[in-house]
Amino acid sequence: MPRFLLILLCALLALCALPASAAPSESERDFIAASQALKRGAYTEAIDTLELLADRGFVHPDASFNRAVAYVERARSSAASPGDLGRAAAALSEVLLLRPSDEQAEIGLSRIRAEISRRHAREGVAPVMARDSLARAATSLFDENVWAWLALSGSLLLTVGLGLRRFVQRTSAALAGAIGIGLGAVLLLAGAGLTAGARHFRLTSSPAVIVADEARLLDETGKPLPQKRGAVDSVTVPEGASVYVLERRPTLYRVEWGSGGGWLTPGQVRILATR
User: Fold this and answer.
1) Who contacts 149 (Cβ-Cβ below 8 Å, separation ≥6)?
2) CA angle 150, 258, 212 (to 5 degrees)
3) Which of 25, 48, 144, 231 has the most beta carbons within 10 angstroms of its beta carbon?
4) Architecture of domain 24-121
5) What is the value of pTM for the model shown?
């Protein structure tokens, strides 16, 4: 009898503990609620819930993807708001940062930016995509860790080459050592420089997307930058454009757009979550 009671007690404790362990968190419940709202066409409700999740610090590629879908669908409806497509582009850009292999997000982002470009082409607005500076483009070809491994490989190759030249008294070894020294030095210098550059950009800038219909670049005092002669809309950044936030102030963000930049108000920029 005591053994039976002990087994029954353990079973009751297990049943009591099961709902607590299986119960979804508040963020998970909100994500499910937003998904259900999206399915029934309540796009604004879904957006509000997903934006609340983002404000709480909930970061997940599926949440960002659903947010993009909600903004796109609302942009197509009668309840469309200015900047919906830009916010959708920001959400898909966030998906690609969190899950770079997401082909669906990449295709969707290209289509959204093409649609934005078509909408603004008649107004003579600059294209959504602007080329990054040469240094940023070079360091972004691969992940920072890849460049670090390249530098490490160069260092090892350089060490082997020096060893062959110093300790092996053969013509073939001397030739191999010379090649190793030259190639290792190149890989070491290139890898170290690109690693340092990638780290600098990672620590000093945050990827972001323009979510306003268009954003006029300002100077440090908040005044519009002067229009350059012969350059159409050279100081206007269109909706959905990728930028980098370099400095944040309460009323202004300093951004880099392509090889130029300026200042924008925080409401015009969506900083992307990267973790």
Assistant:
1) 191
2) 125
3) 144
4) Alpha Horseshoe (1.25)
5) 0.80
